[in-house]
Amino acid sequence: MKHLLAIALVAVLVMAGFIVAMPGARAQRTGAMVDKLVWYEQPNQAQALVDLTSGAMDVYMFPLRTAADIASARANSELKTIDVGGSLNNLFLNPVPVTLTGATPDGTGNPFTHQEIREAMNWVVDRDFISQEIAGGSQFPHITLENRLNPEYGRDAVFASELERQYSFDFDRGRTIIFNTLDADSNYQYDTGRGKWMVKNSAGVYHDLVLNFVIRTEDIRKDIGNYVADQLGKLGFGVNRMILSGGAAFAIVYNGPPETGAWQLYTEGWAATALTAWSDSDPNFFSCGGEGSNIWNMYTPPAELVTVCEDLLNAQYTNLAERQALFEAATRLSLKDGVRVWITAGGTFALSTRVTGLVYDLSGGTWGFLSSRTARFATAGGTMTIGQRLQYLSPWNPWQGFGWLYDALQAYAFTDPAVWPHPHTGLYMPIRATYSVNAPDPTLPPLAVPTDAQIWDSTTSGFKAVASGVTAKSSVTYSFTFGTWHDGETFSMDDVLYELALVYRRACAPDTTGGVCGTAGGDVYAKDDDAATFASILLKDILRGFKVLSPTQLQVWYDYWNVDPTTIAGEINPAFPSTPWTASELALSVIFDDTCRISEVTAANEGRDALDMTKGACRDRMDTNLPTMLSHLPPGLNFDPVDAASRWASLSNFRSTYGHFYASNGPFILTKVDEVAVQTTMDVDPNYPFDADKYDAFLVPRVPQVSFSPAPTVLIGAPAQFVVHTSLQGGGAYDQFSMTWLVIDPANPQNPLFQGSPTKITDGEYAITLTGTQTGGLTPAAYELRTITVGDEAAIPVIVSQSFIAFPDVQNIQQILQAQIDSLKAQLNTARQDQANQTAVSNAQLATLQTLVIGSMALAIIAIIVAVVVVMRAMPRRPKEGMKPPAEEEI
Question: 865 Cβ partners below 8 Å, 6+ apart?
Fold first, then answer.
């Protein structure tokens, strides 16, 4: 992993040029520091940089993807850049066999149905080449499930680095595995004369195999795809390079049938918009079908992988050690199964210097949830113009909408969840709900759920009392801040109860065993069995009861435990609404009349429109249905008809004013969706219940800065002490972190020789001591001392290294030999009177010993010279200039 700069490895977040001016005294504002957001489409990155400089754009919400554009942005005094690790590139390999028919084109086959071949792609792809040559140093290799700037990597760095060693580039190894696997499959045959693989058609006749490779055209994934296609060509595969934009690619890869041979691999990209401290859901999402694309309807991962995915998702562990064992197993097994082969991570965002500050996420950068709502100019107010590579690619609905990154970023500005990951620690923090968690040690007896608590009633779609004897692993009490909806109506506990019931209505499959879902299941599920995300399904599975304590307080019991109490609190989000119940019920009316479906996958499979509450045929059908809904009440809930009539009237007025039905609850009101201009306008909500400066404490991430004092002289067999300094950006000692150190042999970098934790000397200064026993195991050579530091207030791993040379202890050798000489001299002097006749012989011995001393010293000096030469030859050349390595959405 060639990320050495001189002799130090620095994998710390770079905040080049982004020095935030803390706001001074100003008039109190609500919601946001600007009056208006305008989002528009700018697919050309070079033009985006021009727009940022000219003032036509203030923030570009897509990472720069070419080395030239990144260099241009960094050199431009009118711009500032943010480098993070949350932009991910990978290969998505289709594991579903091709169902051959007479209409299947000759040469259609799918070697990736073989697990061995999917795994072998890890060795076929040279991630270092992609990072340095294709990405120009702006990205870094990503091999394991979580990349180097994820808290999971820092938590288990030795394990992760060993997997990186095992799966590093080895083309010959990959080729051997692929050839051996296909040689054993009678459907394939290799033409040695032409160097081509062939595959049988439906008539049993061999034809040249051609892989359909969907390659995204908009960014660096085009270059990655062409490189991978070239590698596949070297293996004897024909490749049909299907260079497509996002919408066309989605239709084939995610929403199309996976068994027709329409695609075999895809240059996938993900945006980790939020840093997550505990990624228990990632194995399920990426490797066990949680993301919901069509392949998972026809492919089941190995049982062992499915088990660890489910155990992590449902937190089936009782302590941190068990949890880490599960996560290690999931990481290892997902690499072996190989449906997703990770390639690179890292992104550089550009924004104008006119933007004096915003809260960005240490994983997602300006993709972070708080970015658009905290961006400001030097003077409060004004219009913030945000450029995006694309817009309006996925349907806008609260339950399975905003699947594309570019749409989700806009939703972040006008919708609020209950809680959300902190932009710097990844722990869930309050947005609309503060909370207290009661999660006893899981080895203790569970909590009793009181019988005056409630649970969903499948017969009414409302709620009923919890039966006696129900228990739970945790309980969370939430205190909500409601305010008003964007249509002016009061946001209340009724909306939360409605959304909680709707979780079951969307997620409940019929259950003949007498479970909470009942034999009928949910009414929405009956129309669209993909209407719920895995988060909603998990909430349905773990919720054991709830009790309304006051108009703003709700206590919830979960049959769920996690090492992180904030993760337990975060389970409420699917039950916290982003639309009033009237808008939701109106949207569901077009599901029940079979005009639309909530899920894009279901809609594509059935040939219907996916639900969008802001534009298109589904919104128009909502217009048609609205007059019939004005006295409608949701099923099973005893809502006030008079209050309901007022709510329906307000929703109707909102539609007339803004042209859509997405009345929500965030700091900005969605005021215009212009499909012709491809432009979205949002105005700050004057009734938003929080001040605009609510998150200003997060403007400057408190990432530890780590540096070494000059390396000591390390003598083999003698103790050695290194000194490490820790501070914050801008200066000042900093001690709120955890640090692990490793001693690395460059000849075998993935197997640390020693590891430990430093000892504090004083504030911001720590000692790393190698014992004489440890240095005694070294040979004369160069070594690396690597520190992995994770701050309490900023959870990305900061990796800093110092090189040192282990020398033979020449002085100690000389002292030992001199002591032997002195001893011999004493013995000779004592025996001189009795052995005068042997004087000449003794003198000769003395001369010989002195010669030995001189010779030994000479040999030691030669050893030092050889060690230095070895070190000098091992010193890496200075790499090309580039980036120091720094709730996912597909991009």
Answer: none
Contacts of 281 (CB under 8 A, 6+ apart): 290, 312, 313, 534, 535
Q: What is the largest CA-CA distance in the chain?
A: 130
Rounded to 5 degrees, φ, ψ at 170 are: -155, 85
Rounded Cα distance between 716 and 718, Å, is 6
Q: Output the pTM of the full model.
A: 0.83
- Give every CB contact of residue 33 below 8 A, 6+ residues apart in sequence: 23, 374, 375, 376, 377, 380, 381, 692, 693
Beta carbons of 767 and 723 less than 8 angstroms apart? yes
Placement of tokens 């230095």 in the chain: 868
List the 462-465 sheet strands across, edge first.
433-438, 474-480, 553-558, 543-550, 454-457, 462-465
- What's the sign of the alpha-carbon dihedral 51, 53, 59, 64? positive
What would the pLDDT profile of 58-108 be if each residue is shown by its tens digit?
A: 999 988 877 788 888 999 999 999 999 889 999 999 999 999 999 999 999
Residue 108 has φ and ψ, to the nearest 5°, of: -85, 125
β pairing state of 4-5 and 8-9: antiparallel
Phi, psi of 883 (to 5 degrees): -70, 135
Model confidence pLDDT, tens digit, residues 170-223: 999 999 999 999 999 999 999 999 999 999 999 999 999 999 999 999 888 999
H or E stretch including 768?
Answer: strand 765-770
Is the four-CA dihedral 830, 836, 842, 846 of positive or negative sign? Answer: positive
3-state secondary structure of 411: helix
d(CA 792, CA 736): 5
Asked whether the beta carbons of 233 and 208 are under 8 A apart, the reply is: no
User: Which tens digit of pLDDT belongs to each residue from 490-535?
Assistant: 999 999 999 999 999 999 999 988 789 999 999 999 999 999 998 9
Alpha-carbon distance of 473 to 558, in angstroms, equals 6
Closest CA relative to residue 784, chosen from 762, 767, 763, 806? 806
Q: Are 567 and 495 in contact (CB under 8 A)?
A: no
H helices within 421-522, ranges in order? 493-507
- DSSP string covering 803-843: EEEEEP-HHHHHHHHHHHHHHHHHHHHHHTTT-GGGHHHHH
Burial class (CB in 10 A: 0-12, 13-18, 19+), 204: exposed
Are 587 and 661 within 8 A, CB to CB?
A: yes
- Which residue carries 């270092």 as its tokens? 128
